[in-house]
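Troubleshooting log. The previous structure file for this entry was overwritten by mistake, so regenerating from the original sequence record. Sequence copied from the archived sheet and checked twice against the printout by T.R.
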Amino acid sequence: MKQSFSARNISIFRSWNFIDKDIETELTRLETAGALTIDGDLPLLWATKSKFVLLLELSGRRAIFKKYRKKWPFFRALWQLSPTAREALNYSRIAALGIPVPELLGVGETRRNGKLTGCFLLTGYVENSIDGRSYMTDRNFTELREEFVEFTRGHLALLAKLHDAGYWHKGFHTGNLLAVRQRNEPLKLFWIDVATCRKTGFFGKFTKITADLTAYFRCTDFTADERAGFIRDYLAARKTIAPAPEKLIAAVEKKLLRTGKAKLFAPVIIPPSKTT
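Regenerated output below.
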């Protein structure tokens, strides 16, 4: 039986890692060879000033490797969790709620006297998946309006689970939401990039719920009437006390007017695996 990741695997004082035993040898080999870098031979999916993401092949399966290379301010680097540690914990918590996420394969931090100097995250790659940006940026998807409606309703139902559990996403936009399209079958949905998920706390729950819904609808071209229908669907999926529909709809519309449309970036297209 595989060991599951939990807060017990983390240390804020020393370097640590948690790696799936099935891929540990291969990952160590790649690291020793200097392949887990932004300028190595492995496919680079995207990069920013602070982090980069590689596509790996490990034991016959593809995986996503994310590594941070930034220098954190002293007060954020000393005895504080890294973004990847928070994301790994959130993957475990979210999976326990019944929300599908990629398999967590590895996570770790490097520290010097408690100060964070680097961190990484390794997850399984969701094969044959697209993210929600495809429905807005790829002209081949413009006719798939009904599928985008299914995508939206499904992910909002999962968001209802998260909110019922007392968390908010804080990054609930189409680029972090996946779907696997299957012929004549419902979409299979997944969440990725969940490092920002937090407990809502006692105060401000309504504001945080509104923020999550607004973040999603900023990335779409649904009409106000369509958005109102989706919000009612979301509220119908809630199992705990939730805001009144008209109040929530009005709050989302007001915030959309203030924030405007999100800037959409074309999704990364990963070629199908040779083994699939």
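The longest strand covers residues 115-124. Archived copy saved in two places this time.
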